[in-house]
Design brief:
- 36% of the residues lie in helices and 19% in strands.
- It has 140 residues and is of the alpha+beta class.
- It has a 5-stranded antiparallel sheet, covered by helices on one side.
- A hairpin with a 4-residue loop joins strand 1 and strand 2.
- It is rod-shaped.
């Protein structure tokens, strides 16, 4: 007596499902990588804006720091400038991996166009001298 048991999937059906999953993963990886880079860039810009805000707060209150202050994502130092003014400098290490800004929504850091020389192993520097009207933002 022969049993006619046809439960389950055939090998061809399983291979087709695996192929579809592989195609979806191949499409998803570049999208995920791109979004990850955009989030790194947004983090760099947010850290630069935060450092700028802290520098301006220190300058307004006349806070004098004698050693570099480590805020985790950036460091702030103050040095003597000309005519006794203080020069505040924040150094922000770049988290992004690619050179230049990939995210076009990064529009303004400390009232300036973001520097383009950003990327892996580089830093963004925000500098403000007491008595001046604007901070400078550089990268390198």
């Amino acid at each position: 007596m022969k049993r006619n048991n046809k439960k389950g999937f055939t090998l061809a059906e399983l291979l087709i499902v695996v192929a579809i999953i592989a195609v979806l993963v191949a499409i998803a990886i570049p999208v995920f990588t791109s979004q990850l880079e955009k989030s790194r860039e947004s983090t760099d810009a947010a850290n630069a804006r935060s450092a700028y805000a802290e520098i301006m707060s220190m300058a307004i209150t006349g806070e004098k720091i004698t050693a570099a202050v480590d805020r985790g994502s950036y460091k702030i130092a103050a040095t003597s400038g000309t005519e006794g003014s203080l020069v505040y400098t924040a150094t922000i290490p770049c988290k992004q991996q690619q050179e230049g800004w990939q995210n076009t929504s990064i529009d303004n850091i400390a009232g300036q166009t973001p520097p383009t020389e950003v990327g892996s192993g580089k830093t963004i520097t925000v500098t403000y001298t007491q008595g001046t009207n604007a901070a400078t933002v550089t990268a390198g």
